[in-house]
Hints:
Order of helices and strands: EHEEHEEHHEHEEEEEH
Distance between the termini: 42 Å
CATH topology of the largest domain: tt1808, chain A
Strand order of the largest sheet: 4-5-6-7-8-9
Number of domains: 2
Helix content: 25-40%
CATH class of the largest domain: Alpha Beta
Shape: globular
Structural class: alpha+beta
Amino acid sequence: MNFALAEMPLPLRFRPDKPMTDDELMHFCAANELLRVERDASGEIHLKPLAGCQTSRRNIAIISALGRWAMRDGRGEALANAGFVLPDGSMFGAYAAWVLNERWECLVDQDKDEFAPLCPDFVIELRSPSDNLADLEAKMELWIANGAQVAWLIDPERQIVAIYRSGNQPEVHHHPTSVQGSGVITGFELVMARIWG
């Protein structure tokens, strides 16, 4: 499956004539490593530009905090910029995610090397300037619908953190100095100074 993507404006959505298998999608991502690639449950492919340096800097702060907490906590694995094949057949990437050890350890090595066939227990999405807010909010709902226990949407432009949980409306925090984890991620705290700065 060959596409001339270099001259197409991003973000871009397209539906292949034949839905991509997980293996074909992995090869497509590898061939287009300068793009963020996702597949929705209907098989439509979503392409976005790589995040800029400011978003990357913020993401490192998030990933570092989650990684340090995960190592201290010991109950799960922190992951960054990883793709997951969700129960509805979509493949989404998360800026940061955390998976309980018992679920991670059930995966075979090949699944860990590719798009893991599971939904993380906790997901953090960071809005970049190229992200459409309505699309990201819909993605957060899909994380929860596919099994994430908690999902945070961080919007640096508006300095808002929206916390998503199953069965609840998003809990919106305006200009928080820190965000505290609850439920499966009790004990995790993200200090926001580096994210807002």
